[in-house]
Please model this.
Amino acid sequence: DAGVIQSPRHEVTEMGQEVTLRCKPISGHDYLFWYRQTMMRGLELLIYFNNNVPIDDSGMPEDRFSAKMPNASFSTLKIQPSEPRDSAVYFCASGIQGALTEAFFGQGTRLTVV
Amino acid sequence: QQQVKQSPQSLIVQKGGISIINCAYENTAFDYFPWYQQFPGKGPALLIAIRPDVSEKKEGRFTISFNKSAKQFSLHIMDSQPGDSATYFCAASQGGSEKLVFGKGTKLTVNP
Model:
């Protein structure tokens, strides 16, 4: 398996624009997590899904952020409108029910909002 | 509120030395404590993990020490190598929960 695949790897956008980050989890994994990493706040869990259903979105910073998982092999994190303070590295991770001792992370998307 | 406090923020060690990173937590319901290793441009990857029924776990040069009464745990890297240079994150989760709470990370540099 190629692991968790995220796209794009880098995104530069202007303030106010819509940004969509994409994630393909490892096949067979039934949990999917979205994290945000910044120097100031470290790794923060934004939202996670189980069997494509959002379980906990308490980490989503505000209504400008939304996440979907239309099927077991694809998820998106959308920011609309984007702001400079959204600049961060966004990670997607996946895991297996009953073996959540390990979360497998993608390589991340570095988002810069100018 | 930071649930897992990690120190130091950065650490420089000579090749062959011992690297020690410390974490402390408040939530006594936490029962799983992993350490993740992250190289530049990569996502974090599980390095080693411990549950509170043991006080120490060793895997190769990496050892976790766990002190339940003090609510602290630490990562020791013996015979540190330049290839160990990375950012290390401690984390914790609560039984029955899939949520990992991460520390803010320690950037380790091992000089040759």
The first strand of chain A starts at residue 5 and ends at 7.
